[in-house]
Amino acid sequence: MSKQILVIGKTSQLGFSLNKVLNQFPPKDCVFNFVLREQLDLSSIESINDFFLNKSFDAIINFAAYTSVDDAEIKSEYADQINHLAVSELANLAKNKDIPLIHISTDYVFDGKSKRPYKENDKTNPQGVYGKTKYMGELAIKSSGCMHIIIRTSWIFSEYGNNFLKTMLSHGKKLNELRVVSDQIGCPTYAQDIAITIVKIIPKLNFKTNIGTYHYCGYKSCSWFDFANEIFLQAELKKFKIPNKIDPIKTSIYKTSAKRPTYSALNCAKICTQFNVSASNWHSGIIKVLDKLEI
């Protein structure tokens, strides 16, 4: 009998990407059930519990999150509900039903003071509401005792939704000159690579031995300025309109409500070694996204 896997966050970058990957490479013996917010609303504990009444799944994948980093500073209660309290409820349901939970977390659980890529067991110290609520979600999963895998990732981009790559292309159409932060370092990650990795590791999971936290992101770190330059380099080759000039600026000049980690590169060796997967090649990811977008 096929395993029934629930996917929360159908219209997220990862939800769209996983759906596409499954259409191209459907796994054996697994049926993925994608749900919309109208069906399962994480802002309501009642909605979560009502959804699971008389429903049975063999695993839960949670892509849903409140990811607006600056808005989270203002809407802290809502961010906490989505990123922490709802995740806690899902973890408790997974524990009670004896099924595994695969949950996506973030590089923002770290403070950005490291000089090397963060490993899974490095000290966490989130600086803003977004990072704090995501970290509290992680803690809730662990304290529930459910079988779980937490995948921390960073700087997700794709052809879907709102993300840095699409924002740069949008600005490039309208502006002749852009200013992009050059002193924040991280690892861009193509959403479809995360989806492919999840599809690859699911058949290999043994939740008695694989339980825990993993990092998955781009294979090479860079600044937002470097990322923007690569985007426009490839975009120009594909005849997209690009700005005439891109200026590097310091974080201190680009004021935001939430503090960003100065350095948030993640070490992916654990997941790559354990499951024989490769870190995201964000250079080729950029090209794939551009091929799918209209000029």
Overview of this protein structure:
The protein has helices at 13-24, 45-52, 71-74, 76-97, 129-144, 164-174, 191-201, 224-237, 269-275, 282-292, and strands at residues 3-8, 30-35, 59-62, 101-106, 148-153, 156-157, 177-181, 185-186, 189-190, 212-215, 222-223, 245-249. The longest helix is centred in the N-terminal third of the chain and has 22 residues, at 76-97. The strands form four sheets. A six-stranded parallel sheet has the order 2-1-3-4-5-10. The mean pLDDT is 94. The chain is built from ten helices and twelve strands. The protein has a domain at 3-158 and 188-218 and 265-280: NAD(P)-binding Rossmann-like Domain (Rossmann fold, 3-Layer(aba) Sandwich), CATH 3.40.50. α1 crosses α7.
The radius of gyration over CA amounts to 19 Å
CATH architecture annotation name of the domain at 3-158 and 188-218 and 265-280: 3-Layer(aba) Sandwich
Low-pLDDT segments: none
Give the termini distance in whole angstroms: 45 Å
CATH class call of the domain at 3-158 and 188-218 and 265-280: Alpha Beta
Counted beta strands: 12
Order of helices and strands: EHEHEHHEHEEHEEEHEEHEHH
- The CATH topology of the domain at 3-158 and 188-218 and 265-280 comes to Rossmann fold
Secondary structure: elements and pairs:
Layout (H helix, E strand, L loop, with lengths): L2 E6 L4 H12 L5 E6 L9 H8 L6 E4 L8 H4 L1 H22 L3 E6 L22 H16 L3 E6 L2 E2 L6 H11 L2 E5 L3 E2 L2 E2 H11 L10 E4 L6 E2 H14 L7 E5 L19 H7 L6 H11 L3
Parallel strand pairs: 1-2, 1-3, 3-4, 4-5, 5-10, 6-9, 7-12
Antiparallel strand pairs: 8-11
